[in-house]
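INFO batch 0412 | record 1 of 1 | parsing
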Amino acid sequence: MRTQPGKTIAKPALLHPRNPHQGRYDLAALCASDPELTPYLKNNPKGEKTIDFSDSYAVLHLNKALLAHYYHVTNWQVPEGYLCPPIPGRADYIHYIADLLTSEDHPKVPRGKNIRVLDIGTGANCIYPIIGSQSYGWKFIGTDIDPVALKTARVIVQSNPCLSNLIKLRLQPDLNSIFKGIINPTERFDLSMCNPPFHASEAEAHAANQRKRSKLAKGKAGKTGKTRNFGGQKNELCCSGGEIGFLTRMANESVEYSRQVNWFTSLVSKGSNIPPLKKILSRLGARKIDVLNMNQRQKASRLIVWSFLTD
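INFO prediction complete | emitting tokens
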């Protein structure tokens, strides 16, 4: 593949066809969208421009540039200690679930405010509502149990005119509920989505984060400089029972809202959790159950989707 000047950071080659983050990052264009990214550019061993992905400040400014360039979001920030998500992978989730809204009779993804999406655990970054609203014009309700995260997400929404009419945020007051207390009796949603916490304890989450940091920083011994903590908050990373516990609760609770949500969807980090989840959903009476596989570079991820409706 021939690379033009400035297009030097390789990204996953197997992204969804509608995902705009194909090929290589156009660093010249991204720096034009967010000049604060420029100081973080460096040469790799081949002499190509890249950034240090173990430097959390560099990753933060890369994300800001991507959101400005592709999604018209010019005011975005993540508080210290909260997750800073990889934009291409998050966009893939949106484009894959968009396909659930198509059919042989209507092969084009529906766009506009008539499509309503519920994002469970939207976080301080508000990333799924941002990408979904700007990619397809859908309306989003983002929920979270963390008031600080929602306060930050609300600032992002209110400070970007392109988001203010498409994204609303709601606090989940009950730590043991997912849909209850959020979905009103007369509301209908085309899709719900979730990136669940997948660790069962803080110790497990901390160990995983340390392994990730060590891998990213491999070969950079003695490196100094400022770093941010993007390890994530406790509720972003872990919950009672881990991922399978959370998704089991979600599946059980979804029955009560089976006529108000067309498609329930969630990321599943651990492939071994898929078979028991499918058995649970089948037992609960889900009419349609599927697993959508997403291959992103060396990382394979998957979505489980289900519906209790027949049409």
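INFO post-check: The two ends are 43 Å apart (CA to CA).
INFO record closed
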